[in-house]
């Protein structure tokens, strides 16, 4: 289960232009700290690179709610007014998480393979070897060779009905 709640001191700012991150954070902090923009004193301003959004944390709780109610704000960025979107920041936590280990009957992990030739050639030779019925192999659906860890993963395409039921 994932429990979430709206954080009373944080906002999430999106629809941001591509620009220098430090300048962007400074401009947003200046804008959202001004009372004429319905802002308040900013405690933290953080860029989230994976989503291209910014989280702004205020010292007082009521500031975030006011800004979220307005949703769209015109902020001076790159010498032009840019319409950014302000949404609530959700705090979340995972509860009642259950994990279990299982073994996939179609996967084989090979270790200790010496680095004796070019990676692509070695991968091809290993795939050929494990496709041969004489080597107790079968048609390989996917094959990955990782030379740094000296590991290979081969995923076989044809699993019996019993094996699929076990997955």
From TrEMBL:
<feature type="domain" description="NID">
    <location>
        <begin position="54"/>
        <end position="142"/>
    </location>
</feature>
<keyword id="KW-0964">Secreted</keyword>
<keyword id="KW-0399">Innate immunity</keyword>
<dbReference type="InterPro" id="IPR009909">
    <property type="entry name" value="Nmi/IFP35_dom"/>
</dbReference>
<dbReference type="GO" id="GO:0005737">
    <property type="term" value="C:cytoplasm"/>
</dbReference>
<dbReference type="Pfam" id="PF07292">
    <property type="entry name" value="NID"/>
</dbReference>
<protein>
    <submittedName>
        <fullName>Interferon-induced protein 35</fullName>
    </submittedName>
</protein>
<dbReference type="GO" id="GO:0005615">
    <property type="term" value="C:extracellular space"/>
</dbReference>
<dbReference type="GO" id="GO:0045087">
    <property type="term" value="P:innate immune response"/>
</dbReference>
<keyword id="KW-0963">Cytoplasm</keyword>
<keyword id="KW-0391">Immunity</keyword>
<keyword id="KW-0539">Nucleus</keyword>
<dbReference type="InterPro" id="IPR012677">
    <property type="entry name" value="Nucleotide-bd_a/b_plait_sf"/>
</dbReference>
<dbReference type="GO" id="GO:0045088">
    <property type="term" value="P:regulation of innate immune response"/>
</dbReference>
<dbReference type="GO" id="GO:0005634">
    <property type="term" value="C:nucleus"/>
</dbReference>
<feature type="domain" description="NID">
    <location>
        <begin position="1"/>
        <end position="43"/>
    </location>
</feature>
<comment type="similarity">
    <text>Belongs to the NMI family.</text>
</comment>
């Amino acid at each position: 289960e994932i429990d979430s709640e709206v954080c009373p001191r944080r906002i999430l700012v999106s629809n941001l232009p591509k620009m220098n991150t430090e300048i962007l954070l400074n401009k947003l902090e200046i804008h959202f700290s001004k009372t004429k923009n319905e802002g308040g004193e900013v405690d933290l301003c953080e860029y989230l690179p994976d989503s291209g959004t910014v989280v702004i944390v205020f010292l007082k709780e009521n500031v975030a709610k006011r800004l979220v109610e307005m949703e769209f704000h015109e902020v001076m960025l790159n010498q032009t007014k840019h319409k950014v979107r302000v949404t609530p920041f959700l705090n979340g936590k995972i509860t009642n998480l259950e994990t279990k280990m299982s073994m996939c009957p179609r996967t084989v992990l090979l270790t200790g393979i010496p680095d004796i030739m070019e990676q692509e050639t070695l991968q091809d030779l290993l795939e050929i070897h494990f496709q041969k019925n004489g080597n107790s192999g079968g048609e390989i659906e996917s094959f990955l060779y990782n030379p740094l860890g000296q590991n290979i993963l081969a995923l076989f395409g044809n699993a019996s009905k019993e094996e699929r039921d076990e997955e």
